[in-house]
Design a protein that fits this description.
alpha/beta, 6 strands, 39% helix, globular
């Protein structure tokens, strides 16, 4: 079970392909898309690897964290978050606050923005941006994640007063979503979990209890120590699977579904 659950995100393209071709005549002529080949290779490699440690024997990190995200015509697609030890103050935490449009030259950001641009409304980007916030936090804590479990508090997305994003708690618990590009981001989170043998649990909190992350998602950085700001784009560097998954998914037209 420990290895099967993080592999669930990689099943989404396969399910999509099966559904798209189930009524086709002459299936012998159907060509398996590159994205399906990509996830097949990843699943096969992980399936042949050593099973990770059981969750019962993992230690928990004594670190609190929060993430939030926003999508609006005024600010664009934004993500913010913080992490720190217990009994911390706003000035003491490490933090980030970014606008994705400012990083168009980064391959995974470019592919993600292309996918998000196809959505009917800009606020529809919220679920994927929230997952990206969790991915950024996971990467930041990577060195401390080996054989550890950790908790990240994820608040409702700031989407110009639209509905909350509590569904991401369910997505990260079940390791599955059928929505794109959220599925590709979830693949990256899951791949990191498999590489580090870590476990990730996400709890939803109301916005009034996650003010710091909400401020950072609004690009409001007052009260945070500039010396403790980190650059999530540089820190992510080359992704494990995200850039390839988004590119293959675009070729398959998943960004239009």
């Amino acid at each position: 079970v420990q290895i099967i659950e993080p592999l669930r995100p990689f099943l989404q393209p396969l399910f999509h392909f099966i559904k798209a071709t189930e009524d086709k005549q002459g299936k012998a002529h159907v060509i398996l898309p590159d994205l399906c080949r990509f996830v097949n290779r990843f699943i096969a490699k992980q399936w042949a690897s050593t099973s990770p440690s059981s969750a019962e024997f993992r230690r928990r990190l004594g670190i609190g964290s929060g993430t939030d995200a926003g999508a609006s015509k005024e600010l664009g697609r934004t993500i913010g978050g913080w992490c720190g030890p217990p009994q911390f103050t706003r000035w003491e935490v490490e933090w980030f606050s970014i606008r994705l449009e400012d990083h168009w030259d980064v391959p995974w950001v470019k592919e993600l923005l292309i996918s998000l641009d196809s959505l009917p409304q800009i606020t529809g980007a919220a679920p994927s941006l929230e997952l990206a916030g969790n991915m950024i936090m996971q990467k930041h804590l990577l060195k401390r994640l080996q054989n550890a479990g950790w908790v990240c508090l994820s608040s409702i997305s700031r989407t110009d007063g639209q509905t909350d994003n509590q569904g991401n708690e369910y997505i990260l618990t079940k390791h599955y979503t059928n929505r794109w590009p959220g599925a590709a981001i979830l693949m990256e989170i899951a791949a990191t979990m498999l590489v580090t043998e870590s476990h990730m649990s996400i709890g939803h909190v109301p916005r009034e209890r996650n003010i710091w992350a909400d401020d950072l998602a609004n690009l409001q950085v007052g009260g945070f120590d500039p010396a403790k700001r980190w650059d999530p784009i540089a820190e992510l560097g080359d992704t494990l699977v995200l850039t390839d998954a988004l590119a293959y998914g675009r070729n398959l037209g998943l960004h239009l579904s």
